[in-house]
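User: My collaborator sent over this chain with a note saying "see what the structure looks like." That's all I know about it. Can you take a look?
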Amino acid sequence: MNDIKISVAEGGIKAVAKTLNLSVSTVSRALNGVYGVNPATRQRVQETAKAMGYVPHLGAKQLVGKGSNMIGVFIPQFEFEASSGFVDMFSPLQMELQRYGKDALFFSVPFLNYPSNRLTECMSSRSLEGCIVFPAFSESHPIMREALDLQVPCVNFEDVVGHHCSSVISDDREGGRMAGAKLLSEGHRVIGYLNGPAHLRICKERYAGFCEALRDSGIEHKPSLVAPGDFSGSSGSRSAIELVNSNPDMTALFCANDLMAMGAIMALTKHGISVPGQLSIVGYDGDIFTAYTSPPLTTVRHSREATSSRAVQLLIELLEGNAGRREAISPELVERQSIARLVV
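Assistant: Without extra context I'll predict from the sequence alone. Here is the result:
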């Protein structure tokens, strides 16, 4: 098999064609999804190419179809409870692409158990010019490593930057600072923090901004006021009760996402703790359902329309040959009824 891989690297689709005793044109059509190839033959070609370690070469124009005007949008398919707030970006993203004469093809990709070379296959079979990769595909995820290796024009929302890769992010540190400042302005001083996965950049940034706001008021946030979560509503339920039990003087809670905030409100209400009468709560993300909770949730909202528009503009820059870069867009605080002023 090692000998075969070497020959493929040297000969490209010619090596695949020789192995299967097929014409180069047939193999090319099969790998690029062109009409007119027997389905059984197409499958045999694709399986053989994958087994031989064949990856289409961008410079040979086998990966990206110039002039196709099609952009791949890759969305995570979660096998666990997760926010679907990114759905709100689909429409503005498509509208901005069309403004530049482009159209989007949406691909749902498993977040866990990512199929090897899935990005390559999608780009090749649809002759895509570039791609936009949604959260939570970070630099450590195989799809982003694949995009960087292929040097395909790519924009993401997870701070991954390369020569052919740009990123537009929501300013999570600023968002955390907004949440902290709002709670402080309402008189709260003992404030819990419900964290998401601690290794994630967005969690580190949100908590850092929150702590900065407290330090500006002369308050150092105590580690005992931080509880772990995993962004699920169930973790919010569990951790909120743990924080209340271990910190009876706590008057407010900042949650690193809206799902955990919702889980917290549900659990607190079940335990007879009034929100916001006894405990004020702030969420993060600005998911659309937060306006219809009981009480309606105060949250830090991503500027999804601005982020979508900027992502397309950065992709156009890449398609025009410019180098990848990073931009940050400020979120906004949406004030609702889950915060009460603390009366001492």
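A starting point for your reply to your collaborator: Residues 30 and 39 are 9 Å apart (CA to CA).
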